[in-house]
Write a structure and sequence with these properties.
Chain A is α/β, with parallel strands linked by helices. Chain A has helices spanning 37-46, 53-60, 66-78, 143-156, 176-193, 210-218, 231-237, 247-260, 279-290, 312-334, 342-353, 399-409, 423-426, 431-438, 449-469, 471-475; strands spanning 8-11, 14-19, 22-27, 32-35, 51-52, 82-84, 105-109, 162-168, 196-203, 222-226, 267-272, 294-299, 367-370, 375-377, 389-392, 396-397. Chain B has three helices and one strand. Classes of the chains: A alpha/beta, B mainly alpha. At the A-B interface, strand 4, helix 3, helix 11 and helix 15 of A face strand 1 and helix 1 of B.
Chain lengths: 489, 117
């Protein structure tokens, strides 16, 4: 028989980063620890290959006392950064959320029609899931369905005191008459039920006529404008059915909205493609020249063979520019100043709380989309799709179907994500992106793993610097309600 | 902890958990669920490391516990980098997704369907 040897220790899946001259550790359970010199040296030693405790001592004792090394190694084991090689990795706990999970956000597609014909659009373009031109759904939601949707929202919100109602399309403002019924009705029902309702509306800006602006201002509706930046970029894809660009029509109206609507921040939401990838210029234009308070960017959702799909080199270009803006954001945050780059802030909040997601987002959990006929779907991007139906506004959420969906899409099922350190924040990514790329919502979005990891690393560095230089900035995230998609693990 | 300093809120919770466990241990109290049960089925071994070294088995983190057991694990152990191509579908050419429905071999091996070249 072999003599029993001392166990060797190995590092677990973790990510190390440096910020403000200090070393940090991001673990797969989403905890972040700052390392001192001995613990840092132990990790340096264990990362290339497993070593026994004696090896660690022999290698590092000349530099630090044995007691410090002993303690350092013990602490690394306790936080699960390091484990003996003969100990199995812990399983990801598969905790399906309690039922009935309350609805926090309802996204209502008040129309599936649009006055623009943006070439990359997931709703009408080449990658569409639902036939919106000749499909089964009515082109406009009726006032009755809208009221039923509001009733559905409050009913399914269960004990929640606050509900979010997001108005979406198509082009949302094409159905202004129904908005004028639905929003006051939701407001009135909220008062009767002792709840609070928050409104958000997404629009391309071309229909922001004075009475539409009046309505949005009076009802305190937060507005998100889909826009791609300066004229030549906006007019590349965001065109009318005739092919004419929409910049000249939308911009004066957007400026008027920004001038008059002061109670809620108005955000710009930019779609990035292989042809429109000058993030810096878009950002400067939308903030300094137009006056948006927040600007968020997202790469276009598309199958890989489309011309506008962003390829590998494009992701690098995008990342470099995101990094610059993120660093600007950091410099502002250190001095408690506002910066409009929205992509960083949400991630910082998730990092600070230590969100460890079981699901890539809240779709099918606390968020549902409603189609024009009142069908309830996974999210607004699946509204009208039979395959992704979750009930109807009259019959309520199909809880059996929801449970089955949550079981199938849990992070534990995503084998590919097991070894990834960015898993707590990404959890496999967007269901719609996966459907478009791989034909199933269950697939993790492997095409952007490298990009997600690099972007997460950027955000972690920013986080580390803020934790050192202005922790008060991060503390302001602490009172806020945790995202519904997250689960402490 | 002396050497690791918690930075975010999750790290605070981890530290409190560790301290509570240490206090409980010191007072001789038995606390349930302190240690996760060993679940060998979560391993995705790297096969036999290299084609010339059959039998050196480690999982993706370099761990050595519970490899190749139960026998369903062989399904995963012998594809990709290993040298038993005949007994599993050709992942590189014909069946790139043949394990897509099988997140955990021990539980899900029945979901793997027949594959015809």
């Amino acid at each position: 028989m072999e003599a029993e040897t001392a166990p060797c220790f190995r590092t677990r899946h973790l990510h190390r980063f440096e910020a403000a001259g200090k070393a940090f550790l991001y673990l797969q359970n989403a905890a972040i620890f700052a390392l001192d010199d001995p613990s840092r040296a132990i990790l340096d030693l264990l990362e290339p290959e497993p070593r026994s405790r004696d090896d660690v001592m022999t290698a590092l004792e000349p530099r630090w006392p044995a007691a410090a090394l002993d303690e350092g190694l013990d602490e690394l084991v306790r936080v699960q950064a390091v484990a003996p090689v003969d100990q199995a990795s812990p399983e990801i706990p598969k905790v399906i959320p309690l039922e009935p999970f309350p609805l926090t956000t309802m996204v209502m597609n008040v129309t599936n029609q649009c006055n623009l014909a943006c070439a990359y659009c997931y709703e009408y373009g080449e990658d569409k899931i639902v036939d919106t031109a000749n499909g089964a759904q009515p082109k406009f939601m009726s006032a009755l369905t809208a009221k039923q949707s509001v009733d559905f929202m409050f009913r399914e919100a269960g004990p929640n005191k606050v509900v979010h109602m997001t108005l979406f399309g198509g082009e949302t403002l094409l159905n202004l008459p129904v908005l004028k019924v639905a929003i006051p009705y939701a407001r009135q029902r909220a008062i009767e039920l002792g709840k609070r309702v928050e409104f958000n509306l997404t629009t391309n800006g071309t229909l922001l006529k004075p009475d539409a602006i009046d309505f949005l201002v009076e009802n305190d509706v937060a507005v998100t404008i889909s826009i791609d930046g300066p004229q030549e970029m906006q007019d590349t894809f965001r065109v009318f059915h005739s092919g004419a660009g929409s910049y000249d029509v939308a911009m004066p109206k957007i400026k008027e909205l920004l001038r008059r609507h002061r109670t809620k921040p108005i955000g710009a939401r930019v779609t990035l493609t292989s042809k429109t990838l000058d993030v810096h210029r878009m950002f400067r234009h939308l903030t300094e020249e137009v006056g948006f308070r927040e600007v968020g960017f997202a790469p276009v959702t598309t199958s890989p063979d489309r011309q506008y799909a962003i390829e590998d080199g494009g992701f690098d270009t995008m990342l470099g520019q995101f990094r610059d803006l993120a660093e600007e954001f950091r410099d502002h945050a250190v001095e408690n100043r506002h910066h409009a780059f929205a992509n960083v802030k949400d991630t910082l909040e998730e990092i600070h709380k230590g969100v460890s997601k079981a699901y890539g987002c809240g779709a099918g959990l606390g968020l549902m989309g409603v189609a024009t006929d009142g069908q309830v779907a996974l999210c607004h991007r699946f509204a009208g799709s039979e395959d992704h139906s979750m009930g109807s506004v009259t019959d309520g959420i199909d809880r059996e179907r929801q449970a089955e969906f949550l079981d199938r899409h849990h992070i534990e099922n995503k084998t590919d994500c097991r070894t990834c350190w960015a898993r707590p924040l990404c959890a496999g990514g967007c269901y719609h992106e996966a459907q478009t790329r791989y034909g199933t919502t269950e697939a993790p979005n492997l095409h952007y793993c490298d990009w997600i990891r690099e972007w997460t690393d950027v955000c972690l560095r920013i986080y580390g610097e803020l934790a050192e230089r202005n922790p008060a900035y991060l503390a302001r995230f602490e009172g806020r309600v945790t995202d519904e998609a997250s689960q402490a693990s | 902890m002396k050497h690791l300093k918690p930075v975010n809120q999750k790290a605070d919770r981890v530290e409190r958990h560790i301290e509570a466990a240490a206090e409980a241990a010191a007072s001789g109290e038995v606390v349930a669920l302190q240690q996760a049960p060993l679940r060998p089925d979560v391993h995705v071994p790297l096969g036999c490391s290299f084609v010339f070294f059959p039998g050196w088995e480690v999982d993706v983190e370099g761990g050595t516990a519970g490899l190749c057991s139960p026998v369903e694990r062989d399904l995963f152990d012998c594809h990709l980098g290993c040298f038993w191509p005949a007994q599993v579908p050709d992942q590189l050419n014909h069946a790139p997704d043949w394990t897509a429905t099988c997140a955990s071999a021990q539980k899900d091996w029945r979901k793997i369907d027949l594959i015809f070249p």
